[in-house]
Design brief:
alpha+beta; D-Maltodextrin-Binding Protein, domain 2; 2 domains; eight-stranded mixed beta sheet; two-stranded antiparallel ribbon; 16 helices; 41% helix; disordered N terminus; signal; SBP; ABC transporter substrate-binding protein
């Protein structure tokens, strides 16, 4: 009898174990993304978790490329309005949208102890409604045989482009996040620190006057780009130009760059590094439904995701940064991401981003923005 009473949910600070004399708790995990995300859950993380936590089962409900994510949010919202349970326990994907609608549980280090190992600004980005279990950012890729001392700051990068005409390029800000991140970072040159948050989460067109310095800089850089001012087609286009030696440096997504290197699509002499202040990036957040009847088990699952061994699997499988700060990771992971994953910044809000893109075509490319 005592053993039965003592069986229950035990949440530990560095890992989680669940034991139960009753039937296992089932967590419904709603996730979205490409096939690599589905494989990560099905082939790696869920089997690992269930082996370590035999009292919890995880049921994956996957939305390929987010096709069903809106219907999931609608289901959660309808359940809230009706005072019922949606059946969603854990949500990966539209965490910020769900949080804004009051559909998620606010998280803390008291509920998820290892959340204390995540950079506070990354946690705050999702309003503390999501655990970032993996991330990526835009970094500089460079040919180490030609560039012995890559730029470490934005000002050094701008200077390098000017002194090495034809050896750098980026894609238009609406054709891929790598080019968008570079344009955003340069536009931030003229934004006062006190106004930075407005550009990331709010909108006020009158503040776009602060972009003047950045657009002037981008316009001056244009003639020094690849083939006297040619932009790459997209994220992949920059990687391809690097791969065939047409340029010596360009902005790329960290996970794409690492994947290309691992597949031999980039030669080993291509290296990746981050600048200061860093280019923008983002995390994949996972949250707990506010109406979940299994919150304790969900906290166990989220805490387990942030343990070093699990984070190492995520980093290796996805070629993405760990969700926790790099100092908490094994040496092999620190070595892999050491020049990249120190930190990353955040892009502009959707309305500012739309204005930025339109103005970039007009003021830098000198052409109207293509209609899509």
């Amino acid at each position: 009898m005592k053993a039965t009473l003592l069986c229950g949910l035990l949440l530990l600070g560095t890992g989680s174990t669940v034991a139960s004399a009753q039937a296992p708790t089932t967590l419904n995990l709603y996730s979205e993304g490409d096939v690599n995300v589905k494989d990560l859950w099905e082939k790696d993380l869920i089997p690992m978790f269930q082996k370590a936590n035999p009292g919890i089962r995880v049921n994956l409900v996957f939305s390929a490329h987010g096709a069903n994510s809106q219907s999931t949010l609608d289901r959660m919202a309808a359940a809230k309005q009706a005072g019922k349970v949606s059946g969603v326990d854990i949500l990966e994907g539209p965490v910020e949208d769900a949080a804004q609608k009051g559909l998620l549980d606010k998280l803390s280090a008291q509920k998820v102890p290892l959340l204390a190992r995540v950079s506070p600004n990354v946690v705050a980005r999702a309003g503390s409604y999501g655990v970032p279990y993996r991330a990526s950012s835009v970094v500089l890729a460079y040919d180490s045989t030609k560039v012995k001392n890559p730029p470490k700051t934005l000002s050094a990068l701008i200077e390098w482009i000017g002194k090495n005409p034809g050896q750098f390029t980026y894609n238009a800000p609406d054709t891929g996040g790598s080019g968008n991140a570079l344009v955003t970072r340069i536009l931030k040159l003229g934004i006062p620190a006190a106004e930075a948050g407005t550009f990331e989460t709010d909108y006020d067109a009158s503040k776009e006057k602060y972009w003047e310095q950045g657009f002037t800089t981008l316009k001056k850089l244009a003639p020094n780009l690849y083939q006297n001012g040619q932009y790459s087609q997209n994220n992949v286009g920059t990687l391809q130009l690097l791969g065939k030696g047409a340029i010596s440096m360009g902005p790329v997504w960290s996970d794409m760059g690492l994947s290309y290197l691992a597949q031999g699509l980039l030669p080993a002499n291509i290296k990746l590094t981050q600048i200061d202040p860093p280019l923008s990036g983002g995390a994949a957040y996972i949250g707990v439904a506010a109406d979940s009847a299994n919150k304790a088990a969900a906290y166990t699952f989220l805490n387990w995701l942030l343990t070093p061994d699990v984070q190492a699997v995520v980093a290796n499988k996805m070629n993405g940064y760990p969700g926790v700060q790099l100092k908490y990771m094994p040496a092999a992971v620190q070595d892999k991401f050491g020049d990249m994953a120190g930190d990353y910044s955040f892009g502009f809000s959707s309305k500012f981003n739309a204005d930025m893109t339109r103005m970039w075509y007009e003021r830098v490319a000198g052409t109207p923005q293509p209609q899509k």
